[in-house]
Every structure is written in C-alpha cells, then in structure tokens.
Amino acid sequence: MGSPWKGFVEFTLPASPPTAFVSADLSSTSPVGLSLSPYGRSMSFDPGMLHNNGHTAYANGTGPGIRETGVVEKLLTSYGFIQCSERQARLFFHCSQYNGNLQELKIGDDVEFEVSSDRRTGKPIAVKLLKIKPEVLPEERISGQVVSSIPLHLDGKSAPGQVPTGSVCYERNGEVFYLTYTPDDVESNIHLDTGDKVSFYMETNKHTGAVSARNIQLVKKKQMRCQGVVCATKEAFGFIERADVVKEIFFHYSEFKGDLEALQAGDDVEFTIKDRNGKEVATDVRLLPQGTVIFEDISIEQFEGTVVKVIPKVPTKNQNDPLPGRISARIGFTDKELPFGEKDTKSKVTLLEGDHIQLNISTDRRDKLERATNIDILPDTFNFTKETREMDMLSAQRNHAVRIKKLPKGTVSFHTQSEQRFMGVVEKDALAATKNASPTKSKEKVPFEAEEGVIAYEDCGVKLTVPYHTKDLEGGGHPQVGDKVEFSINEVKRTGQQSAVSIRVLNRNASNAKRLHGFVATLKDNFGFIETANHDQEIFFHYSEMCGDLENLELGDTVEYTLSKGKGNKVSAEKVTKVAAGTASVMMGKVIRPLRSVDPSQTEYQGLIELWVNIMVMFIISSFKHTNQRTKGQNYPFGIMGMASKGDCLQKGELVKFQVCTVAQTGQKMACNVLPQRRAMVECVKDQFGFITYEVGESKKLFFHVKEVQDGLELQTGDEVEFSVVLNQRTGKCSACNVRRVSEGPKPVVTPRPDRLVNRLKSITLDDASAPRLVIVRQPRGPDNSKVQANL
What we know:
This protein is mainly beta and about 800 residues long. It has 2 helices and 45 strands.
C-alpha cells in the first residue's frame, strides 16, 4: 500500500443499543483503531487498551469490542459493578481492568469500557475501564454559603466507595436551594467550614440527574466567636481578657449587646474580632452565664514547698512580670520552681523567704503555663523562721501588723486588776454613755462620750482619788455623791492609767434627797413623764437623767427617782432608775371616768372604775348583754400604770376586768391590770379595711384595718369580734387593733327557685320552636388550648 491517507467516514451500527455515530481514523492500519463516543465526538486512541488481560475483546470472539459508557454502581475491594448508560444492563468488572489510580475511583464516577465475556461462565463483563472526567460548561459562578462542611476525620481516609460529602446553599428569587459537594469539588485543596462564603458552578449528572456544586472557591471565612472575661471597664470602653490566647482586646460600650449598667469586671462574655485601623477590636459583645469561661485547671492534689523569692512591696519601674514570686516545690521526684502572684495567696498573709507553705498547681489552658496558687502558710513555719513575734489584740492603730496568728481567747490582757479591795466615798457622779435618744424609735446606738465619776479613798495614809465609769458598777444601785463604796483598782499596762472597777455600794448617804417611786406614763423623743405612786400627777424627766439602759425602758415600768426644781421652779425627776414592780390583786367593773389623756376636757388626771358585784363572773358578762340585773359597788381609780395594754384607749361606759392593788406609800387601793371586755359585730368589710358596730365618742362605727386582724383571718359581715381601741394622737380619732374573731356570723341562705319557674321549665319541650334555646357559639378550651367536652 502507498503512503498513508487520512479520511473519516460515518456509518450506523445495527446494534441493540441506541444508534451511535462512530468516527474512524483511517490513518491507522490497525483493525481496532476505532473509538466510539455516544456524543458523536472522536475519542483519543490508546494503544494500551489492546491488552485485555486474558479476556476476549469481542463479544462473540470474532470481532473487536465496542466501547460503552456507564456509572460505577458498586465498588468493593477487588471488583465492582457498572450500570450501563446506553442500555439496561449491569456489568461486572475486576479492579485490575481499571486503567488509573484505583483510590480515585468512587461510586457514581462516569467510566468508559469495553464489553467482553467471561471464559468460564460466558457472561458479559466490562474490561479496559477508563474514568471520564466531567466537563464543566463555562457559565456564571454562583455565590452561596457552606451549610454542612465535610467531616475532617473522613477527609482522605474513607474506604473505597465511601465519599464524604458536604452541602452548600444559594438563593434565587427568595428561594433557597441546596447542593452537595465532595472534597474533589473544592479548589486549592482547602477545608471549608460551616458559614464560609463560597462561589461555585452547578453541574447536572447526565445519568442520575443529580445537581451538585463544582469548582468551589472560598470567598470569605466565617467570623469565629471568641470568649473571654471583662478585665477592665473605663468611662466609655473596656478590655476583655481572651480565652484563646494570652492577650487583652479592646471593646467600645456601643458594641455591648445588653444592659450596660449590669456589666462589670469579671463577667464572662463572647465577642467577634474585627480589624479596625490595623488593630483588633471586639464587636457584638454579649454576656455568657457566669463560669462559662475557664482559663486554668487547678490540681486537686496539694503540694508542699518553700518560698524562694517574695513579691516586692514596691515594684520596680522595669518589672513587667505579673508573677514575680517564686516557690520551690517537689513535684513527683523532681524539684520544680513555680511562679506566683499577689492573688495566689489564700490567706493574704505576708510571705517571707524560707516559709514552709502548701499549694495547688494551676495550668493555663492557653499557653500551658504552670504557677502556684491557693498558697497557705503551714502552722509549723514559725518554728523554722527567725522572725520576732509579738502578742497583741486587734485594734485600730498606725503600726502595720503582718503574719498574724490567732491565740486562744484571754491569752492577751491589757489590764492588771488588784486583788486588794479598797473603800472610798463618791465625790462625783458618773453619767451613762448613752445619748439622749427615744427608746420608742430607732434602736441604733449613737456614740456618746460618757462622763466619768470620782471616788476618794486612802491608801497607806495617803488620800487619793480614782475615776470610775457606770459600766464598772456591780448590782442595781447607782452610787451618788457621798455614798460609801467598795472597789478594786484596774491599771492599763501601756499607759499606767488607773480606774475603779467592780464597784459596789456599801452605805447610802443619809443627806441625799428622798427617793420616790413612780411609773413610766409617757415616752417622747428625748424626754418622758412619770406617774407618781399616788397616781395623781405626772413628773417630767429627761433621758439624760436615766441611770441604766434606756432601750429597756417601757411604758408602765416602775422607776425610782429624786425630785428637783429647775428654772421657774418647775419640778422634774432626776437620777431615774428602773426597779422591779409590785404585784396586785381581781374583779369586774365599768369605766365611769376615762383617763385625762383620753378626755382632755376633764380636770381629774386619774380614771375611775365602778365595781359591779354579781353572783358568777360568766353570769355577769351575759347579764351585761341581755339584762339590767347588776349591783353597783365601790369605785377604784386607775392610771396609765394600771392598764394591761398601755396603748389601749378606755372609753366611758366600757366593761372591764381588773385587779386591785395597794400603793405601798399611801395605802390607797387602785385598779391595775385593767383589761377591757369588748365584743361587737362586724358591720362591713371593704378591700383593706372595715367597720365594727361599736360606739366611740360621737361615732357609732369603729374603723379597723385588715392587717390588725389576728391569725390572718378574713372577716365577714356579721362576725363577732374582740378588739382593743387605740387613739391616734395626731388626728384625735380612735380605731380598733388586735381584732380577734370570736364566732362566725350567719351564712347567707340560697333562696330556692320559685315554683312558677320550676313549672314553666317542666312544661317546655325541645320541639317547641318558641322555647328558649342554648346555642354554643364557641367550643370550650382548656388552659393548654386543648378541646374540652361540653356537658349540657
């Protein structure tokens, strides 16, 4: 044959698959130099494809094999199956027939192959496999976002046939579409994270119709959220200590998303890092639950060590180390030097070099730096140090005490007290160290300098004087000028100052003014009034004249006092001392005259109770309500001291229970422990108050507040109650207090339905069109919006 000639012919193969066009290159003299493509395009010639590894390359053993295309449907270790694209056939293939890197072959890949037959079984098989790379038609790149990234632990390590995939999404006309991708679809072999901005092409698989993303390029990485702790706050900005690196980052208050008033140093926050003017700043700062951010891990095991270097009291200018201290500790079998700072000492004690201490080891999660923390001095450390120790009690002083150790109570004493007892005479009274404040108001004590008294005595023939204070008195008596006392001498160790202590009154001075008894009738802001023992008048006294604790003084207390005259010959009580009250004896009566504090128009100071004599006390009480059978008896005066409740306001005509006591000084019999017997009906109850049918003065109704009802009961109209009456000094009106329900009132009775209505309902039938009907407009629903069955 002459020189080779080239030409192309097109012809149709009468085969069972769909019609395909074959291009033949006539320049080759080989009878198998043909390559078939289902797309009508010429395929490149590969001489290596002539080798069939022992398989016949012809379907019937007489002609060349036809190349087809298909998709890898199943792939195992040494063999697999291909689904033909041009016909409904599933062909077996051995991995040795694949021309390429078997690790790159995956399920779903497009392949080109020839059809042959197995020698033993005669079944058709695929040989001479070649992977077809998908063509990406040039088109516009689509912008989207990674929805699900490819797991790192599967990337590049998956078994044959297992392809790790991820997914991206994009938006078109308000709709969001999702596409899958594989690691081979990502350009530059980078790992994409969820939230990354990407661009890609879309490709449709010709065999399966599945749409996927190809040629994915990273456009912008997702901004990661960081965590930290607010370490400083300024006027308009602050700083955050980051949890990922040992570094602080700036943030402006405008970037904080939350209540700025609640933000403070030590709060856990999360934020996003942005670059502004070449510097990193925190943006979108948000609070996290306390304890979310953890910088360090503290060892459970405690270690012992020795202080090698202490923290300098005055840091130098060049000192930049935040952990300047050093401790030598034995960790395991090796000695290790650990740094520590000011915040690592557990007891805030001043450490010295050579101190024997115990500690925990803290490891920073960010840079793995170890340091000593929870440092505490061991009790035996003072046995090894050569420091000078002193004993003292805690007090406010300028000297700075360090390394304080608590001693048993009573070990340290500032005073020495003489065992010898001395006798002397009071030359000057001592005033109590309590400011003139009302006992009825705030119980807060106001600092007030006490005035000391003076005692004259003799020691070895030498006349001396010694000061004393009311706190050093023993017994209830208050010494006065001229009284003979017995005492000991106390001396302060540091100053040598002496004072009398353990003072006891031996003899009272006969020349002193007569001591009188009375009862506390009124207590104001800084003064009060004492009712005399005869209960006929009140004596003024100032709180500065009170000897003893003013806070324990109450209305009705029995006191001892001395009369004195001041400016304008006004009589007042001085040197007032609280004493024990006497006892009294019991009866029933009626108030015929109230106290002058209740009725200021009367001239008499005392009130008056008329005794009612009856056979039985309970019968007397009932007779007061229902009959007029009673016997009048003797009248007994009473004062504020005689009231069982000093705040109660007895009205004229009220029934009372009382006891009879005798005044020791005058022998007069008076009423005491006077207890009113009030019972009435509740007329009405409003929201927070109500009225009782009880006549007080010109009013026939008595007001009460619901908070005055005992046991928290809710009173109803008609309830019978007992109560006390108090007078408001500012408004001059009375009200009820300590209201207690005695019995409940009658319950309202439900009136039965009239017979005419009952008969009418019986006569109505369901078929009657004119009869009233109940129509359900809306079905009932429960609290959780569930349907409820209506029973009509």
